[in-house]
Design a protein that fits this description.
Blueprint (H helix, E strand, L loop, with lengths): L5 H10 L3 H9 L21 H19 L4 E5 H8 L3 H7 L7 E5 L5 E6 L3 H11 L28 H14 L4 H11 L10 H4 L1 H10 L60 E4 L5 E4 L2 E4 L8 E7 L2 E6 L5 E6 L8 E2 L2 H4 L13
Parallel strand pairs: 6-10
Antiparallel strand pairs: 1-3, 2-3, 4-7, 5-6, 7-8, 8-9
Length: 355
């Protein structure tokens, strides 16, 4: 929920509050901490997953030399850096506190270190797989969204969250609206074996909202096509049967939810939305000018898309279309007020309305 609250997230990112660390520290005494970070999982070469892939080259080099009879191998920090691509500051820390599979000794001779490998079968296999650019099947760090999407009744235990995420991304990247994706996924997850006990299935709404809220510019970006069955089964109308809506004379669109088809008429793609808060005078600011909205939106956050000379306003989740204003081409401090929005209040403001 933190990542769905943009203002709160921005504040926490600014003061660098360690949210996850503090939460885990709080839960630990109560025995409620069932969450295990990827970096704490067993069977990894190093807790930092990015560094692990680069350290695989060092592990493999030491392993090959040990097979040739070299137990302790002399390396300078520069040689280790060239071998792995990791920085010297990283190795200043790494060599002082190495993982269990490695013993280090400072030779005090031109920055040389003596490295001794203690190989383990599972780690050796993982190191060579990572060095070759592979990630083993079943690896907890593997997030492979390539390949065809299996039907929900074929989803296995432990892969429900991965399947749900992949299905939602397919819908989003092909321009399906958030509300339509919610309806489709609510229908399909009921066919997943064990969905009643699955936390991912129960939290479907939050997963859909999170994927659509993050990187809204990727809506309708294209890519792999969703299977036909994924677009069917929820409600009376399939996505393929819907016609692209058009703008009416008053600026409204043919359907309420945010869909890439709503932007096709003007050509091109909308710019990424910006988040605004409607002030007490029933206006939001965009480009140093003011645009009105109904009284019910005072104090609420909205998403504003700039596209084809218009500002299209949606609710914070992007589920419902609110209004469309023609964007001022220049100037600042101008007001564009729609009479029914402001009533008598609008008489005291400089009106530049096209409605």
């Amino acid at each position: 929920m933190l990542y769905l609250e943009k203002i709160l997230l921005s504040a926490i990112q600014s003061d660098k509050t360690p949210v996850v660390r503090d939460l885990l520290r709080y839960l630990k005494p109560f025995g409620l901490n069932s969450y295990v970070k990827k970096s704490a999982m067993k069977g990894l070469l190093y807790p930092d997953l990015r560094a692990e892939r680069k350290l695989a080259a060092l592990y493999c080099s030491l392993y090959d030399k040990s097979m040739d009879g070299e137990r302790a191998v002399q390396f300078t920090r520069s040689e280790i850096r060239d071998l792995t691509g990791l920085s010297l500051p990283f190795f200043a820390k790494f060599l002082q506190s190495p993982p269990a599979w490695l013993a280090t000794k400072d030779c005090w001779s031109e920055g040389e270190w003596s490295l001794t490998l203690f190989p383990e079968q599972a780690l050796t296999q993982r190191a060579f797989d990572l060095a070759e650019g592979k990630i083993p099947d079943g690896d907890p760090t593997k997030k492979d969204f390539s390949g065809p999407l299996v039907k929900p009744e074929e989803v296995q235990d432990g892969s429900r969250n991965h399947w749900i995420t992949k299905a939602i991304l397919l819908l989003k990247h092909n321009g399906v609206s958030q509300q339509r994706a919610q309806d489709l996924m609510s229908h399909h997850v009921k066919a997943i074996p064990g969905h009643e006990e699955s936390e991912s299935c129960r939290q479907l709404g939050r997963i859909v909202a999170s994927i659509y809220f993050n990187h809204p510019d990727l809506l309708g970006i294209g890519g792999a096509k969703p299977p036909s069955w994924l677009l069917e089964g929820a409600g009376r109308h399939s996505t393929a049967q819907k016609k692209a809506p058009t703008l009416s004379k008053r600026g409204y669109v043919g359907k309420n939810s945010l869909d890439v088809n709503n932007f096709k008429e003007g050509g091109g793609s909308p710019r990424p939305p910006v988040c605004r808060t409607v002030s007490e005078d029933q206006c939001f600011i965009f480009g140093k000018n003011y645009y009105s909205l109904p009284l019910a939106w005072v104090g609420k956050q909205i998403l504003v898309f700039e596209w084809a000379g218009k500002l299209r306003v949606y609710d914070k989740q992007g589920d419902n279309f609110v209004f469309a204003h023609r964007k001022f081409a220049d100037g600042k401090g101008k007001y564009q007020l729609h009479g029914p929005h402001l009533g008598e209040i609008g008489n005291s403001c400089p009106v530049h309305s096209y409605m």
